[in-house]
# Entry
Amino acid sequence: MHILLVASAFNSLTQRVHAELRDRGHRVAVELALPGTDLTAAVDRHDPDLVLAPMLRTALPEEVWSARTCLIVHPGPPGDRGASSLDHALHDGAATWGVTVLQANAEMDAGDIWATASCPLPPLGKSDLYRGEVADAALEAVLLAVARFAAGTHVPEPQTPGPVRPPVRQADRRIDWHADPTELVLRRLRAADSRPGVLDELLGAPWYLHGGHPEDALRGRPGALLATRNGAVCRATSDGAVWIPELRAPRTPGAPAPVKLPATLALGPLLPPLPELPAPFDAAEGPRTWSDITYREEGATGFLDFAFPGGAMSTGQCRRLLDAYRAACARPTSVLVLGGGRDFFSNGIHLGVIEAAADPAAESWANINAIDDLVEAVLTTTDRIVVAALGGNAAAGGAMLALAADEVWCRSGAVLNPHYRLMGLYGSEFWTYTLPRRVGAATAARLMAEALPVGADAARRLGLVDRTIPCSPQEFAARTRRLAVRLSAVPGTQARIAAKKGRRERDEALRPLAAHRADELARMRAVFDDPAAPYHALRRAFVRKEHPAGTPPHLTLPPGTGPAAHPAAQPEADTAAGTRGRHRTGRT
# Structure
C-alpha cells in the first residue's frame, strides 16, 4: 500500500514505523504537521491508501479524517485519553501500560480501535521506555492495524473512552527535596527526562533537570549538591541522593531556546567546589550509583558498557571512553563487547556541547578528532574479537563506531541512521572504509544519499549488522552476555583472531587508515570553518528544537525515488569490498 505518515516530528517512533513498513514492501512517505502547513492539501497531494499518525501534537483536519481512514497511535491502553499519557503512567508508578491504534474522529482519543498491544514499564526514564517497550508495543499494534486495513474485512471495535486526563504541568512535577523520598524524586525526574525536564531551583537559579539515577552511599542536607562525576551532579534527597546528568536553563523571551547540557558544564562558574568522584569502572554488585562507563568480565569475555544521555558523545566523553577501551584491551580476554545497554548505542558527536561552546567550529573539530581516535582504536585492535552490541538506535558517527567492530549485534527493535547529509556534513569516523567494506560502494553511496532510517532486519540483510536479537529491551544485555561468552569459547574464535592482523595489514596496504581520516577530516574542516555552511544553521535548529520550514523532500518521496548519490556521498572506489484537539499522541 501507499501509506502516508503524518507526524509532528520525524522522531524515533516515526522513524521506526517508517523503516518497518518499508521493510514489509509498503510505499511510505512522510508529511510533517508543522505550523502553517495545510495538511488537507498535503494529504490530497500524496493521495495515500492509508494515513497513519505515529506521533501527532495537532488535530488532523476534519476534511482529512472524514474522507479517509486515518489511524492514530496513542501511547496508552484502550480508554486512556489525553496528551500526557506516558507521563501519567510514570507518575502513578504503573508497572504495565499499552498502546492503542484508533481511528481519528471528532473526539480526542475516542475513535474506534483497530489494534492494541500491552507492555511492561520497568522503572526507567520516559524517553528510554518510549524508544523501547512502548515502541515495541506500538509496532506490534501498528503492523496488526495495517494488516487488518489491508485485508479490507476488519471492523474496528468501538471503545468506551474515559475522561480526558489533563496535561502534566510543572506544578505536577514539582520536587520537595526536604520531604520527597528518593523513589518519588526518581519518578518525577524519569517522567520528564528528555522533555520537558523538571523545573526546579538550583544554586539560586531556575533550571530544568533532565534524567535521574539513584545513589545509595552519599548523604547530605536535602536539596544540596554533594558531588560531581563525569559531568553529572549528585543531589541529596530526604533519604538518599540522585544523580542528575543534564540541565537546561529556562528560555528568556526573545532569546534562542537554551541547550540541554551536561550538568557541570551548564552550571559553569555557579558550581561550588565539590568532590569529583571517580567512576566505578568495575561494574561489580554493590550500592546503587551512576556512571556512564562501566566494565565487567565473565571468563574470557569483557563487557565495556557506555550510556551517554541522548546517545551524544562530547569530546570529553569520547576521550574517557577511549581510555576505558584501552584499559579493557589490556585485560586478558579474547572477546570484547562494546555497548550492550538497552537504549541508544551512540549518535556521534555532541551537537549540544558544540552549540554552547564559545567557538563551535573549534569544538566541532576537537569532537570529531576525539571520536575518530576512538574508532581508530577499535579498527586497529587485532588481538581479540570486538563486538558492538546495539540495544538501541545508532546514527551518524555512532553507527560508524559500531561498524568498526568485527561483529555488530543489534536488538530487533533498533533503528540505524548511517548517514550525515541531514546535518550538512560529509562525515568522518572512517566511514569511507567501514561502510563500503560491509555493504559495497554502491549501497554505501545510496545509504548516504537517501538519508533514511534502516530497521534492524533490513540492516542485517544489507550487511550493516551481523546478528539481530529478537528480545525485549530488558533482555538484551543478558542475551548479549550469553552469546559473547559462547563466542569466546568457540574454537574458531582463536583462528579468527589470528587472521585479523593479516587482514588489517592487507587493507592498510591497499589504502592506509590515515589516508581515509585525512580526506574525511579535510572535508569536515572546510565545513566547520565556513560560517555560512549549512551545518551551523542545521545544528542550531536541531539542538534548539526549531521547527523546519517544511517537510524535508527526502521524506516525501516513496522508496527508490530519493535523491541520486551526489559526489559528497560517494566513498572512494578503492575502498569497496565487494493531538491537540481530537487526537494526539504522547511524545518524547
User: Anything to note?
Assistant: Residues 559-588 have pLDDT under 50 and may be disordered. The radius of gyration is 24 Å.
